[in-house]
Amino acid sequence: MIKKSIAVTRAANSCVLLELNGHAVLTDPWFTERWWLRRGEPLGLRIADLPPLAAVVVTNLATNHWDLRALRMLAGKDVTPVYVPTSGMARRARALGFRHAQRVRWGETREIAPGVLMRVVPAGRTLVWPNNAYSFSTAGSRVFFGGEIAEVAPLERHRAGNPPVDVALLPVNGLRPLLGPRLVMGPDQAVAGASVLGARVLVPVHDAHGRDPLSALFRTTGTASDATALAGPDLNVVDLPTGRRWEPTP
User: Fold this and answer.
1) What DSSP element (H or E) covers 11?
2) In the chain, which end has fewer C-beta atoms inside a 10 angstrom radius, N or C?
3) pLDDT for the residue numbered 250
4) Dihedrals phi, psi of 216, to nearest 5 degrees
5) What does each C-alpha distance from 223 to 58, 109, 226, 233 come to in angstroms?
6) Which distant-in-sequence residues (6+ apart) come within 8 Å of 218 by Cβ?
7) Does 247 reside within a domain?
8) CB 209 within 8 A of CB 218
């Protein structure tokens, strides 16, 4: 049984508000569209609606995971830690007023709030740039967030040395360029990855894909509904609409 120390609210794409033992963590911030980059789903949270944050964690440097335009408007910049996968991203965050922005490397850990431990998990690379995933542990639960991860193998390596998680947030739309490898998991990889992690719940992220100039260069290969159809009886897929808060039922 998952203790009620977890809550999840999706804003859009991989931008999620996680509540862990009462501490709020924002993942992959994306609140402002561009003319060339659209969400394809309603925005579920505005940046002005966010509670005080224990941390902002970012998986990669793509604009729909790393919205500097929106982060300029975040309250509490001078006290909110921002964890990113590259030194350049940390410098840009500090230039915006995030005094506690820092690069975190694969395998590093941080106590981001009393009783909330974060571990940085390898999630492959986009070209030469590393992608981070994050595992969060509290006294009552474990949550895995991979906003930009394409393969199951890194999850197998992580699970080999760590306890099972309760909830996994993994991408499902299988986004890939017309020429080249898949950028994120499709529904079959997400279901397999959640099972490898030992999760009882999969919350799909990176699902919708807007119609914009970039969409002509990419295609998707699945949805959260496909993940639901693929999941076995031991995995509950929570297809969470943007803006709706979910917490486990004891």
Assistant:
1) strand 6-12
2) C
3) 73
4) -70, -15
5) 22, 32, 5, 19
6) 175, 176, 177, 178, 183, 209
7) no
8) yes
Instruction: Record the tokens describing residue 207, joined without a space.
Output: 């699902």
Q: Does residue 1 form part of some domain?
A: no
In 36-186, beta strands by DSSP E = 55-57, 82-84, 101-103, 109-113, 116-126, 129-137, 142-145, 167-171, 176-177
**Is residue 118, in this structure, part of any structural domain at all?**
yes
61's CB contacts (< 8 A; 6+ apart) are 84, 85, 86, 88, 89, 126, 129
Number of domains in the chain: 1
Look up tokens 């943007």; give the residue.
242
Domain ranges, residue 135 = 6-242
Q: What is the pLDDT of residues 179-201, one digit of tens each?
A: 999 999 999 999 999 999 999 99
CATH number at residue 144: 3.60.15.10
Average pLDDT, stretch 124-138? Answer: 95
Q: Using CB atoms within 10 Å of the CB of residue 10, give its burial: 0 to 12 exposed, 13 to 18 middle, 19+ buried.
A: buried
Instruction: Please check whether residue 88 lies inside any domain of the structure.
Output: yes
Residue 7: C-alpha distances to residues 85, 90, 95, 120, 186 (Å): 25, 27, 31, 20, 24
- Residue 119 corresponds to which tokens in the numbers above? 């571990």
Give yes or no for a contact between 118 and 112, defined as CB atoms under 8 angstroms apart.
yes
Residues 6+ apart with CB under 8 A from 179: none
